[in-house]
């Protein structure tokens, strides 16, 4: 295979900042191909990615066993994989159905709508803080603190721990973007995984003694009533909910505001037509998908896009490419907040559709609309935004904007 088509090219800073020309090249030259560098099949077309996401012959239980990791020289990853192996992202069938049913109650569309006024209060408080400064880092000052506050509230962990929670979550996310290789910050990841386990173990112990109206207490009740969730599953999925519960939303908000500012005519439409907000959020998710790919393992031999996938081979499904596929989305590189028939794959598809999608949508709607209304003259700072060094979790590390306080007051 031509090495210029390998997914390892995504790690180049220029491609990391804008992977879409690379994705289009894959779609044109090799829409489904074996990548020997990542030891997996790579799929980039919308039709094939969507079909694969719902194909029961492709399993999410794709983590390598300990002996396989050791044989590949990845033995240092064994403690990390031990945490991942019972998380919702990596289980199928009855186990997935059982655990997801327990957690669904906290993430329904109705519950998300009920939280809208609470989300609005937090957004207002965060923006009150930055208005007097005349500038803000969208990631640090809004896109991160909002969703981590919400997921902490839902789980029942102290919001004041959010800086520590961010450190742990960033390390966790680096594993999800490493193509089954050893992340550069391995020592930090190992420490974070250990500390997160101890942190949730202590909180679970306190909730057993003093239950509250939060998700951890509800999961404990399910465990004690009819053993629907084991202690190991409880701890491991609390780690997942903490990290996944804010990562997508953080990146949706920051990427969304950044994209609006890059397309002034779309920003103007967003400002003048409040009925377009929900549609705009969907286009932001399509245009800059917070999660760029997922993977599956073949349970049997099967064919995808004319290629024979052998049993136990891994298939990497690039949702970020599928969402820019010209065969599915007309003029896919144009950002259009009124785009119709926008069935993107940013939240996945089928049984593993993102658990927190409804909540992420409401948080994104409230945050981005409030920023636009309060700061209609918001503009990018001279300091260029920087992207996180993660090929899967697509988000900005920092994004500085200028806030025109006088314009904000005049708009109120």
Question: Could you walk me through the main structural features you see in this protein, from its secondary elements to its overall organization?
Answer:
This protein has 412 residues and is of the alpha+beta class. The chain has one domain: Cytochrome p450. Helices cover 53% and strands 10% of the residues. It has 19 helices and twelve strands. It has helices spanning 13-17, 20-29, 46-53, 66-71, 78-84, 93-104, 109-114, 116-131, 138-143, 145-155, 162-176, 186-209, 215-226, 231-262, 264-272, 277-287, 319-322, 357-374, 405-411; strands spanning 32-35, 40-43, 58-59, 135-137, 293-298, 302-304, 307-309, 314-318, 379-380, 386-387, 396-398, 400-402. It has a five-stranded mixed sheet with strand order 1-2-8-5-3. It has a three-stranded antiparallel sheet with strand order 4-12-9. A hairpin with a 4-residue loop joins β1 and β2 (40-43). α11 (162-176) packs across α12 (186-209). The radius of gyration is 21 Å and the shape is globular. Belongs to the cytochrome P450 family.
């Amino acid at each position: 295979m031509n090495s210029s088509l390998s997914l390892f090219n995504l790690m180049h800073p220029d491609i990391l900042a804008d992977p879409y020309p690379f994705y289009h090249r894959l779609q044109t030259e090799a829409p489904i191909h074996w990548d020997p560098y990542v030891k997996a099949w790579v799929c980039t077309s919308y039709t094939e990615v969507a079909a694969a996401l719902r194909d029961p012959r492709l399993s999410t239980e794709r983590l390598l066993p300990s002996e396989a990791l050791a044989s590949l020289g990845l033995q240092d990853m064994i403690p990390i994989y031990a945490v991942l192996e019972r998380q919702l992202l990596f289980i199928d069938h009855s186990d997935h159905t059982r655990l997801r049913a327990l957690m669904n109650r906290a993430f329904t569309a109705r519950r998300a709508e009920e939280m809208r006024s609470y989300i609005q209060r937090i957004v207002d408080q965060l923006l009150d803080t930055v208005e007097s400064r005349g500038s803000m880092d969208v990631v640090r000052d809004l896109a991160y603190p909002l969703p981590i506050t919400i997921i902490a509230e839902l789980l029942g962990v102290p919001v004041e721990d959010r800086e520590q929670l961010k450190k742990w979550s960033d390390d966790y996310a680096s594993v999800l973007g490493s193509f089954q290789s050893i992340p550069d910050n391995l020592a930090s990841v190992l420490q974070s995984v250990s500390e997160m386990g101890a942190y949730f173990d202590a909180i679970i112990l306190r909730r057993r003694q003093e239950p509250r109206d939060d998700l951890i207490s509800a999961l404990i009740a399910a465990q004690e009533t009819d053993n629907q969730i084991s202690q190991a599953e409880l701890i491991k999925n609390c780690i997942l909910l903490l990290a996944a519960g804010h990562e997508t939303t953080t990146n949706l908000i920051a990427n969304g505001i950044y994209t609006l500012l890059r397309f002034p005519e779309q920003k103007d439409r967003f400002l003048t037509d409040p009925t377009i907000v929900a549609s705009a959020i969907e286009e932001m998710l399509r245009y800059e998908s917070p999660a760029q790919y997922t993977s599956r393992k073949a349970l049997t031999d099967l064919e995808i896009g004319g290629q024979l996938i052998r049993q136990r081979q891994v298939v990497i499904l690039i949702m970020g490419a599928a969402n820019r596929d010209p065969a599915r989305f007309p003029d896919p590189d144009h950002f259009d907040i009124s785009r119709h028939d926008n069935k993107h794959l940013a939240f996945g598809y089928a049984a593993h559709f993102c658990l927190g999608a409804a909540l992420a949508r409401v948080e994104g709607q409230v945050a981005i609309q409030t920023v636009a209304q309060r700061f209609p003259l918001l503009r990018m700072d001279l300091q260029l935004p920087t992207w996180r060094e993660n090929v899967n979790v697509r988000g900005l590390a920092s994004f500085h904007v200028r806030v025109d306080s006088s314009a904000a007051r005049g708009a109120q």
